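hiii so my PI (J.) wants the whole complex modelled not just the main chain, which honestly fair. so below is everything: two entries, each one labled with what it is. i double checked the lines twice but i was tired so who knows lol
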Amino acid sequence: MEWGDAMSLTMDAATPSLVVNGTRIDLIERGAGRPLLFLHAENGIEPALAAIEALAKGARVIAPTHPGYGRSELPKGMRTVDDLSYFYLDLFDQLDLRDVALVGVSLGAWLAAEIAVKSTQRLAKLVMANAVGIKVGDRETRDIVDVFALTEKEFIEIAYCDPAVGTRDYKALPDAEVLAAARAREATARFAWNPYFHNPRLKSRLHRIRIPTLLLWGTHDRMLSEPYGRAYAALIPGARFEPIERAGHFPHQEQPKAFAEKVLAFVEGKWP
Amino acid sequence: MMRVYQFTEQPYYPTWNDHAGSLRVNLLNRKCDPRIAADLFHRYYDEWQVADELGLDIMLNEHHQTATCMSSTVVVGLSVLSRITRTARLLVLGYPIGHRPDPLRAAEELSTIDVISRGRLDMGFIKGVPYEFPASNQNPVAVMDRFWEALDFIIKAMTTHDEIFNWEGEYFHYRQVNVWPRVWQEPHPPIWTTTGSTTQARILGGRGYVMATLGSGYNTRPLYDSYRRGYVAKWGRAPGPDRFAYLGLVAVANDKDEARKRGDLVAGYLRSSSVVHVPFRNPPGFLSPEDNARLMRGMTPPRSYTKDRRVIDMRSASVEDLVAAGILFCGTPDEVYAQLAGFCDYCGGMGNLLMMGHAGFLSHEQTVDNLTLFAREIYPRLKARKQPDAERIAAEAVAAEKPAASRAASVRAGDLVDATISAR
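here's the output for the full assembly
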C-alpha cells in the first residue's frame, strides 16, 4: 500500500447492510421486542457495541452506522446533521418502523433531536445522552470545547471519566478499525466544523418534540457542561434530566450497563 | 529561458525565538509591535522594488494569524507593488480560495490589480495550508470541491463581458455578476496553482495551468511527468517549460563562507514553518482517511530526498543536505548556476524559478546583495540556457506511464507534503 492509495473497506463482510435511497450503510440488529433505533456518537459504532448488546436485552435494537462513518457510504452533497436527519426519516419509512424508541449519544443525540423536530409520527420515546446541537451561551461564550484544537490525548482527558476507556492503540487495532476512526474524524468535521457542533436553527424548534424525552448526562463530561445539558432539557417540553455517574461525554461507552438500564427503564415506562 | 520571481513570506521574524511552541494560529498578536511590523513591510516592499529594477519578477503570498508571514491579505501587497514597480510580473501564489468566503471579492480584487499593474498579474490559486482552517473556520473537509467551484466562478467572472450572469452552485450563490473593472489580460491573467500529488498534477496538465511545486526537490520529476501526461492527453502537444515552476531557497555570495551563512539564514524559513500547535497541523479532511489511518498507525509519510535518494528532514537539515536535496541553491554565483542548471535538467525543463531570496534573519543588506548577485551573475546565464527538449521529455513521460490500476491514488495524496512540512 502506497501513500495516497485507497484502502479496501473490508471491516467485516458479515456485517449486514441496508441501502437507503441508493446509499449503502452498515446496520446491526440485535434482540427482539419494541424497536429501538440507536444513533451512535461522533466516535463511531465500535465504541458503542457493548451498549448495543446491553440494550438488546430489552428491545429490538437497530444500530446503523451513519453515512460517512465506518464502512457506510456518504451520499453526494450530504454535509449537515439536517441532511442526516432526512436520511433517517427515509430509513424509518423504508423499514416501516413504528413506536420507535430513538436513542442517541452526543452527535447522535443532536441527530435524534433534528429527526424529532421534523416528525415524531413514528417515535414513542426519545433519549439523548450528552447531546450537542444547540447554542446556549452568548456569541463569545464557547459552549462546546474546540476539540479540533486538541490532541487526541488532550481530548480523551476531557471527554472521559476514565481516559483508559477512550484510549486506543492504533498500532494494535485491525486496519479497518483504524480507518473507521479516521473516517469518523473526517465525517464529524464535515457535519460539525461550522457552525461548530450545533445548528443555530434547532433551539427554536425543540418545542415541537412532544413525546416523552430523557436527557442522560455523563457527569464527568468536560467537553460539555452540565448546565448546557440542563438548558437543553429545559427547551424540550417535559424532558427529564438524569445524570450517569463515573462517565464522561460517552456514557454509553464508559457505563454501558447503567446506560442501557436507564434507557430501557425509561423506554418501558418503568421510570419511577 | 527562465523567469525568476523574488519571494519572501514577509515574516515577523523578531518573535521567531520568542514563542511558546507555536508561531501560527495561536501566537498572541500582543507579540507583534506594529512599529516594527511597519518597518518590515516597508523594507520588504523596498527589496521588491530592487528586484523589479534588477529585472526580476515578484511573488507574494498570504497566510493567517502567523509570525511566519505578516501578509494576511495578499491584495494589499499586490496593490502597493502594482503602483511602485514598473516591469516585474506580480505573481500571487497563492490566493487561498479554498478557505476564503467570497470568490466574487477575489475576482474583483484581482481584476483591479491586473488593471492597475497594466497586465502584470499572475494568479496563483491554492486551497490553503492546513493551519489556515482553524483560523478561517472554513470546513477543511471537501475543501477541493470548494476550490474548484471558486476557481470556475472566478474564471467565468473575469471572462464574461457582455452579459450579467447567475451562479447558484453548491457553495457560492450570486445572481447579478458583472465584475468591474474588467481584466487587462485577455481572456484572463495566467492561472497558476500548486500541488504535491501526481493525480492532481495530471488534472492540472489537462487544464494547462502553470503548476508550481514547493520544496519538492528530487520528488519533483514524477509530478512534472504526470502533468506532462495530462497535458499531452488534452492538448496533443508537450507543455513548454513555462508551464512548470519550482520554489527553491536561494543564497548567493561571492565568498563561500558568506554564502553558507546566508543559506543557513534563508533555511530559517523551513525551520520556522514547522513551529505550529500540533492539532492545527492536520485538520480533519485535509488528508484522505486512508492517509490519516497510516499516520495514526505511526507510518511516516514521504520525506525529502537527495539526488542519490538519501532521506533528509528539511526542517532540521544542514545547508549541505538542503543543497543536495534541491531545496536550497547556495554558494558562489558559479556554484548556484550549476546547481540550478542541474536541477532544471533533472526536472526535464522548468521555466519559472520561485526564488526565496529572503527569509527570516537575512538582513536587508544581505538580501539586496543576494538579489543583485543573482540578477547580474546567474540570471543572464539561466535565460540564455537551452531547456531540455519538451517534446522528447513529454514523449518519454507518456511512454513510461504505468497502467491505470496502479495510478488509482487519492487525489489528495500530495497534501501529505503540505501537512507534514510542518508536522513534527
